[in-house]
Q: What sequence folds into this?
């Protein structure tokens, strides 16, 4: 059996290294695409859960916060868990339902600020700009009421949930709390249930002073 010389072995090693360097970026992109697809599927399932809730409650979606400023739908011991719409991935530590967790995010949004690894909130922020009315008028406290689905004129254009940055510890989706974890893109689910992956420049500002830069995207209204 012929023995390879040291030079020949080095050449083989160099070729393998070159091939590996060419293959790794492709594998990395494939992994990112798979994670983004899983994230989008999670968001779609969360949208379905909220639709199911609305069907069970006369067409009203879960509200974002209650009058005591408590996050209502995804905190430990909150309604969406106690009513079994979501289920803990760890019933003792009360970690979030797996559908609320994005595999790409290394630090999840915590239920309590200062606890970035609590895994109780999950990875997604909730659009609290739903156009609920108080006596026929939009108020800053509109997110404390339950949204009636027929109030939305453009459910296919109104964002519902999206990837949330670590800075989004309030779990309130705004243009400042979006996490672009998927190749400089963020995943969103809309009120009609479809999902989309958007670049930062494709996401309108949530608010400029008291003016909503895109009321269709954030509020589903003109």
A:
């Amino acid at each position: 059996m012929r023995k390879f010389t040291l030079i020949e072995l080095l050449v083989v090693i160099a070729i393998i290294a070159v091939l590996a360097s060419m293959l790794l970026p492709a594998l990395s992109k494939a992994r990112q695409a798979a994670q983004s697809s899983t994230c989008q599927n999670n968001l779609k399932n969360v949208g379905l859960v909220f639709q199911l809730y609305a069907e069970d409650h006369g067409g009203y979606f879960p509200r974002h916060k209650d009058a005591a400023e408590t996050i209502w739908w995804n905190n430990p011991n909150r309604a969406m868990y106690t009513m079994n719409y979501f289920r803990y991935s760890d019933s003792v530590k009360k970690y979030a339902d797996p559908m609320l967790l994005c595999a790409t995010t290394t630090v999840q949004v915590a239920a309590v600020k200062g606890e970035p690894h609590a895994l109780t909130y999950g990875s997604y922020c909730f659009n609290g700009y739903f156009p609920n009315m108080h006596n026929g008028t939009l108020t800053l406290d509109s997110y404390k009421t339950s949204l009636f689905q027929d109030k939305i004129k453009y459910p296919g254009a109104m964002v519902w949930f999206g990837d949330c940055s670590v800075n989004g510890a309030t779990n309130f989706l705004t243009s400042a709390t979006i996490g672009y974890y998927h190749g400089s893109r963020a995943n969103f689910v809309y009120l009609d249930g479809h999902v989309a992956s958007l670049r930062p420049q494709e996401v309108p500002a949530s608010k400029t002073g008291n003016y909503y830069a895109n009321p269709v995207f954030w509020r589903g209204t003109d």
Q: What stands out?
A: The CA atoms of residues 88 and 117 lie 15 Å apart. The chain has three helices and four strands.
